Amino acid sequence: MRQSTTDTVRRQLEAAALGPLLLGKWDRLCALLERYGSVVVAYSGGVDSALLAYAAHTVLGDRMLAVTIESPLESEEARQNALAVAQEAGFPHRVLPMAMLENPKIRDNSPERCYHCKKAILAALQTIAGEEGFAVIVEGQNVDDARVYRPGRRAVIDCGAKSPLVESDLGKLEIRALAQALLLTVWNRPSAPCLATRFPYWTELSAEALMRVAKAESYLHALGLATVRVRVDGGAARIEVPVTQMELILAHRKDVVQYLSELHFDYVTLDLAGYRSGSRDEGLGK
């Protein structure tokens, strides 16, 4: 363990007055990472994987590598955010291009898509680990993920990867609190699952359709809508935002309709139920 660095970070967390329970969970996370010896981190740039990568670098130094997948399933905005956080935190980072849509089990967008996608990613990281001498693959699930439909959890087990945030009993709010105390700018960034989640299951995915959604959401982000989903229903774009943000989007109604129409959406609608994480998974089992 890089004792001086670990001690400095621990003092920083103590100064943030996070409380003994959360500090104990941080200590548990660091102990797990030290036990692994060296790791490849599946790093999307979200707050969970960012905290995990930061902790791994704190404990292991150059005995860790964070890897971000570049594919049509992820927006350019998300990739740039991942790069920015890695540079800000200073941990070793690599971008790995993957042709995910060449896999029909992913392209067909069945309810098991997440399993096949996660399995492909973890297999690619296992190849890197084997070639470059890293001992363990780690990924950023947290304990709250067990409450929602996440078939990718099975892929983690099947591939022998580790989920140290789960093993440390860390939930999303605790992860955000730690990231804020560590001055990671991603600490309050809304979750951004892959773009395939914007389409109904069994809708065949294409790079062009995914790009349209990415451009639409990037445009809406620029209007000040941090949490937004553009769900595709046939030729319609169904926009989900928190109920408290509906006035903002309605204030830009004409511009939003024009921009999304230019992206070849036939209809642009606002979902009056508001933003719901994983709304495509309603009714599916865990």
Map the helices and strands.
Blueprint: H1 3-15, H2 20-36, E1 39-42, H3 47-60, E2 64-70, H4 76-89, E3 93-97, H5 104-107, H6 113-132, E4 136-138, H7 152-159, H8 164-167, H9 172-181, H10 207-222, E5 229-233, E6 236-240, H11 246-251, H12 253-262, E7 267-270
Parallel strand pairs: 1-2, 1-4, 2-3, 6-7
Antiparallel strand pairs: 5-6
Helix pairs in contact: 2-3, 3-9, 6-7
In brief, what are we looking at here?
It is built from 12 helices and 7 strands. The chain is α/β, with parallel strands linked by helices and 286 residues long.
Describe the structure.
48% of the residues lie in helices and 12% in strands. The protein has 286 residues and is of the alpha/beta class. The protein folds into two domains: 3-188, HUPs (Rossmann fold, 3-Layer(aba) Sandwich); 206-281, Alpha-Beta Plaits (2-Layer Sandwich), CATH 3.30.70. α2 crosses α3, α3 (47-60) crosses α9 and α6 packs parallel to α7 (152-159). The longest helix has 20 residues, at 113-132. The model has no long low-confidence stretch (mean pLDDT 94).
Shape: globular
The fourth-level CATH homologous superfamily of the largest domain is: HUPs
Which fold name fills CATH's third level, the topology of the largest domain? Rossmann fold
Tally the structural domains: 2
Average pLDDT, to the nearest integer?
94
Instruction: Give the class-level CATH name of the largest domain.
Output: Alpha Beta
* H and E string: HHEHEHEHHEHHHHEEHHE
Question: Whole-number radius of gyration?
Answer: 19 Å
Our measurement of the CA-to-CA distance between the termini, rounded to an integer number of angstroms, reads 37 Å
- Biggest sheet statistics: 4 strands, parallel
Structure summary, number of beta strands: 7
Structure classification: alpha/beta
Query: Percent of residues in helical segments?
Result: 40-55%
